[in-house]
């Protein structure tokens, strides 16, 4: 070990002293050795030196025959130097060399043809990080034992790889070729066709922008892994991989992946594929049979795509069950796909699933039978969804095998029905729950807002009547309800209409009569400016109702001039018994409505009770959108407080009766 500043002459002197010793390893790291002459190592000719490290010098010149005196050398490290040229005699005599490291070695990056011709036994060659390399068909001549070639971060004349590029390696048993970040833009016909034994091909972080026809990978008979992630734009066809059925791992993350053909699937015939990464591609469309052939697949990554539509009930043709047939799947990543619906049979048949990531979606409710087949699931990630309740019926079985759970960042509803069972489970489970102290907070009701789920007091929840009775009762109720829904489907609105009318007649809004002097208005109406015509047509007439006239408050009509608008709103809301939201697409866009009015109304309502809000939906607004825009969710309200404006004109009168009932109903939370 020599560790000081040395000129070539001094090194020569030192080496001559080492002659005849048993030295096997010589490290000349960072000693500012600027040149190597053909005499520098001559003193070592009668040693068995196998390892020479001359890295991190500012070496600019290596004379020809510089290593000719070191026939036993197996490892030569020339990393981080400033060598100007490698020529046909630079490595002369190194026929025993197995490993050559030329990472960041070249300054002007000139490698003459046949520079490596002597290295018959070289197995590993690293030329990473060299700039402006100019490869020819003869650059790699003679490397007949090469197994591993790394050309990472090289800049070179290989923008397009052709069947000539690596032709000089066709006699080597190359197993691994790393072309990561090497400026490659195109793979031509048979680009790797000489590399019949290649197993690993890394083409990541390049600029590849092309349609893969399948010709690119011709001749890769033994290929196991192709890494194509982080490229400019890759288009798949039905035959993209049909010449390489031996493939086990395929990475196509962040390649702006598009499918020219979905049928037959580009992945057809990849029966040995165990890992597939299609993440970060914004994929919105795949077919039910896309992954059908992948019977060996163990890891599937689909994170950061746009697959939500495929699982919607309303999808034309029904939900697309694209995971069908993946019997061996163990790890499934569906992070951030916008899913708000998951079909009950989405994971059917995935009985080996161990890790499932559904984080950062819009999932609100999971279907009950969703995890029926996941007997061995051990890690479940549902973080940052819209889950409000974690009930026994849904989660008990899947939680029983779980070791790691992430449900952080969900808007939990801390009520007995929604969360008591979960809190109890958390308290008794051995599973790891990262972030439990800080990232599991109650959203509703107000009493618990912002408080850790763990602190929810579930002692008052426990004295519910015998569960079985409760179950039978609920069951009966549900069956009756289904029957009722069935009946209602057949002109049921008519029944409801007469029912409402008679209720109104008989009871005569008793509760409203009781309202006392506290309220000046029956309801404060919040709506977007653009929805005024609807309000004029449909709400104002109720003020002239013969049986029971209502008194509404509108900003446009009832505000006295002079006072600030904010004060007015606050006061008027306080003086109103109910608050009606007229919810339309306009409404969700109206910034004034969104920022102040709703916030205020909501605060007040929670203070008093949540039943004083009435939501009227003119347009069909999905729940997640409502929640996203104004932090309200239909599930937070009683059904009679949610009214949908009927599409059919003849049902308008039924709607008005319903509205009257809603206006008359009690504000107390039961
Ligand atoms: C090739 O070299 C890399 C880096 O040293 C190593 O990780 C890999 O296992 C090698 N591959 C083969 C087939 O020897
Ligand atoms: C290389 O590809 C061209 C077509 O691009 C073809 O004509 C030629 O035969 C191929 N050469 C070899 C050695 O495969
Ligand atoms: C290729 O090299 C890069 C950079 O050293 C490394 O991150 C990557 O894992 C290598 N690829 C393979 C397949 O080993
Ligand atoms: C798939 O793997 C099996 C088992 O390792 C092997 O026998 C078979 O040849 C492989 N198929 C292909 C097409 O390489
Ligand atoms: C959690 O368990 C401990 C003892 O096992 C008990 O004292 C505590 O009340 C439990 N907390 C909840 C929220 O169930």
Which properties best describe this structure?
670 residues, alpha/beta, Rossmann fold, 16-stranded parallel β-sheet, five-stranded parallel β-sheet, 32 strands, binds 2-acetamido-2-deoxy-beta-D-glucopyranose
3D structure, described in words:
Strands 1-3-5-7-9-10-12-14-16-18-20-21-22-23-24-25 form a 16-stranded parallel sheet, with no helix packed on it. The protein is elongated. Residues about 510-515 have low confidence and may be disordered. Strand 24, helix 2 and strand 25 (about 405) form a beta-alpha-beta unit. It has a domain at about 515-665: Toll/interleukin-1 receptor homology (TIR) domain (Rossmann fold, 3-Layer(aba) Sandwich). It is α/β, with parallel strands linked by helices. The termini are far apart. The longest helix has 23 residues, at about 465-490. It is built from 14 helices and 32 strands. The site of one 2-acetamido-2-deoxy-beta-D-glucopyranose has 3 residues, from loops.
Question: Concise description?
Answer:
Residues 519-663 form the TIR domain. The chain has 670 residues and is of the alpha/beta class.
Radius of gyration: 37 Å
> Biggest β-sheet: count, sense, barrel?
16 strands, parallel
Mean pLDDT: 86
Count all strands and give the number.
32
Small molecules (ligands, ions, cofactors) in the structure: 2-acetamido-2-deoxy-beta-D-glucopyranose
**CATH architecture level-2 label of the domain at 514-664:** 3-Layer(aba) Sandwich
The separation of the N and C termini measures 84 Å
Strand order of the largest sheet: 1-3-5-7-9-10-12-14-16-18-20-21-22-23-24-25
